[in-house]
From TrEMBL:
Span of domain CinA C-terminal: 7-155
EC number: 3.5.1.42
Protein name: Nicotinamide-nucleotide amidase
MF-aspect GO terms: nicotinamide-nucleotide amidase activity
Entry's transmembrane regions: none
Keywords: Hydrolase
Pfam family of the protein (one): CinA
SUPFAM superfamilies per UniProt: CinA-like
Keyword Hydrolase: yes
Lineage: Bacteria, Pseudomonadati, Pseudomonadota, Alphaproteobacteria, Hyphomicrobiales
Length: 168
């Protein structure tokens, strides 16, 4: 089993132990996080749904990300990651939601938002959404996307294991 597979298994087991469902909201990974989870037999016990919101319109329509947030901060931002995670939680039966938005390359980067910049959002029932970023080395689109999946699964596992986690 790959390290991504092992992380996905660990996250599924942790969610099951806490009796919570989970959801994802993905932009730059295009569904790779939910795929890593649902590749594992029995994942339906804790995986509710995945939102693939590649466009800004999809982020607004499916997750409720505000147009003002996207105008002021852009799709790749702390604010958008927070709203994506909160929206996935609100539009699912999940007690945990993971969101990712970033610049996977090879183009699309800028001085302020270079290729490899990814914002992660984590929302849990009964707690404020949290966000953090990583700046992955630009070793190509596949590398950045794989590292994003690996990081998101790890952040999800950390969120489930935090004291006071409250599933629905």
């Amino acid at each position: 089993m790959s390290d991504i597979g092992a992380l996905a298994s660990a996250l599924l087991e942790a969610c099951e132990a806490h009796g919570t469902m989970m959801a994802t909201a993905e932009s730059c990974t295009g569904g790779m996080i939910i795929a890593a989870l649902t590749d594992i037999a029995g994942s339906s016990a804790v995986v509710d749904r995945g939102f693939i919101t590649y466009s800004n319109d999809a982020k607004m329509e499916m997750l409720g990300v505000s147009e003002a947030t996207l105008r002021a901060h852009g799709a790749v931002s702390r604010e958008t990651a927070l709203e994506m995670a909160a929206g996935a939680l609100a539009h699912s039966r999940g007690g945990l939601a993971l969101a990712v938005t970033g610049v996977a390359g090879p183009g699309g980067g800028s001085a302020e938002k270079p290729v490899g910049l990814v914002w992660f959002g984590v929302a849990r029932t009964g707690a404020p959404a949290e966000a953090e970023f990583r700046l992955f080395e630009d070793k190509g689109r596949d590398f950045i996307r794989r590292e994003t999946v690996r990081t998101a699964l790890g952040l999800g596992l950390r969120a489930v294991d935090q004291t006071g986690f409250a599933g629905p």
